[in-house]
Amino acid sequence: MGYHPSYLDHFLKTQNFILRGDGPLPFDYRHYIAIMAAGRHQCSYLITLQKQEFLLQGGDHNWLKGLNYIPQKLRNLYDINKILAHRPWLLNKSHIEKLTKGKDSWSLAEVVHAIVILTHFHSLCSFVFSCGVNQELDQAGGYQYHSQDVAAIKQVTNSSSKSEPKDVPIVNTIQDWKNSTINSPPSPTEPEVGITTLMQRMKTLSEQTEECTPVELAKRFENIETQSAEIGIVGPEPQETPADVGCYVDDASFVYQDFAKRGDSQDIPTFRVQDYSWDDHGYSLVNRLYNDVGNLLDDKFKTAYNLTYYTMGGRTDVDTSRFRRAIWNYIQCLLGIRHDDYDYGEINALLERSLKTFIKSACCYPERVTKKDYDRVLREFKHSEKVHVNLMVLESRMQAELIYALRTVNRYMTN
Questions:
Q1: Which tens digits make up the pLDDT trace of 147-169?
Q2: Which distant-in-sequence residues (6+ apart) come within 8 Å of 214 by Cβ?
Q3: Where are the domains of the chain?
Q4: CA dist., res. 24 & res. 178, Å (int)
Q5: Spatial separation of the C-alpha atoms in residues 137 and 140, rounded to whole Å
Q6: Hey, CA dihedral for 233, 235, 351, 7, is it positive or negative?
Q7: How many Cα atoms sit within 13 Å of 130 on the Cβ side?
Q8: Is 363 marked active-site?
Q9: Cα separation of 301 and 217, whole Å?
């Protein structure tokens, strides 16, 4: 995230506030909820960090043995965690009601605080996996030195105390992220659309003046929705969940399902942003129930949504707004959210299939993304620009989960 300092600043402020600032939930609960959220995507990197934080906050060692050892009140949150992580459209007010009634009940403020932590860590898993962030050296499962390199390391560290850490030969034994070739060969079946072509398409789109009818716009959304269901995802299913992660996971077989295949669409209509949006509804509700967090989230969403350096690959003075909108709205389309005023036809013009596959995987199945997948897309883009795309996955996904959850809380409060 350091490639994008203006964003990083908002990210850290928000994360710091929800985990360490004023709020209705006790500190040990906050970190445990983060562990539960990261467990849905088997993100051992985040789980390890949050376990350390949990213990620093005086958390009970026994809870770290797994979900069977935690208080019933926390256990009751698990359904909402699971649904928000994979199929947020299934959340309904009975889930909120179950939490707020009876023994071990939650206050609405606590529910909203928990929801903000869950959505933050679900979407952070997307970022961690799609950027290949891995355990630090001092953590179990982190980078490990080859035994034959130990002498070399001693030599490096003795010869100069000023030497940069990058002189130390490091090998990662866990994932193939850092070991794979830096640039994988282009996929033979699918030559990538170059930046020049992409810029030309953006120019053409901005010059078009014809207005689409609402019916046509709706049809284009459905078209993208159906196509997204046909797009595969990267990587095979992960093997057995490691035991140190599996103890925080319940119902591991509950995973993302394409929104277009959601069964009877009468029961679950498309979420129209015009009916319940972050700007007009979610922001004020979250601020009312969990003071100040709305402002922090709003700044973070806006920064990610509007972030641009007017560059693309090596080109400068490029207006990238259309490309960025297409990515943001495609992610929310995967989660069943439609922006009425957006022409979804632009998504097919600007995002090619390999990029859609990467985005869908990063958003819905982040644990399957590998370094090869990262190298295979946007090959003319700089590393910092790819990270930028991953930031949009993080924020667009988080916003989508949050508005589903806040709309549900609102329905519960008003009925």
A1: 334 444 344 334 333 333 333 33
A2: 340
A3: 1-134+176-415
A4: 40
A5: 8
A6: positive
A7: 33
A8: no
A9: 25
Which residues make beta-bridge pairs with 338? Answer: 272
Residue 138 tokens, joined: 């001092």
Question: Reduced to 3 states, what is the DSSP secondary structure of residue 60?
Answer: coil
CA angle 400, 404, 410 (to 5 degrees): 140
Three-state DSSP class for 274?
coil
| Amino acid (one-letter) located at 34 | A
Token pair belonging to 88:
């947020």
The number of angstroms, rounded, from the C-alpha of 262 to the middle of its chain's C-alpha atoms is: 21
Dist. CA 84–CA 5, nearest whole Å: 29
| Burial environment of residue 263 by CB neighbours within 10 A (0 to 12, 13 to 18, 19 or more) | exposed
The count of other CB atoms within 10 Å of the CB of residue 370 is: 19
- Helix, strand, coil percentages for the chain (3-state, nearest 5): 60, 0, 40
Residues in the chain: 415
pTM over 0.85: yes
Predicted confidence (pLDDT) at residue 365 exceeds the cutoff of 50: yes
Which of the following is catalytic: 43, 131, 333, 363?
A: 43
Question: DSSP string of 106-161?
Answer: PPHHHHHHHHHHHHHHHHHHHHHHHHT----TTSTTS-B--GGGHHHHHHHHHH-T
At 69-101, the pLDDT tens digits run 999 999 999 999 999 999 999 999 999 999 999
List C-alpha distances in Å: 313 to 10, 185, 197, 233, 301: 25, 18, 12, 25, 24
∠ CA 125-126-129, nearest 5°, is 80
Distance (Å, whole) CA 285 – CA 243: 38
DSSP 272: E
pLDDT over 90 (residue 145):
no
Burial class, 395, CB count within 10 angstroms (exposed 0-12 / middle 13-18 / buried 19+): buried
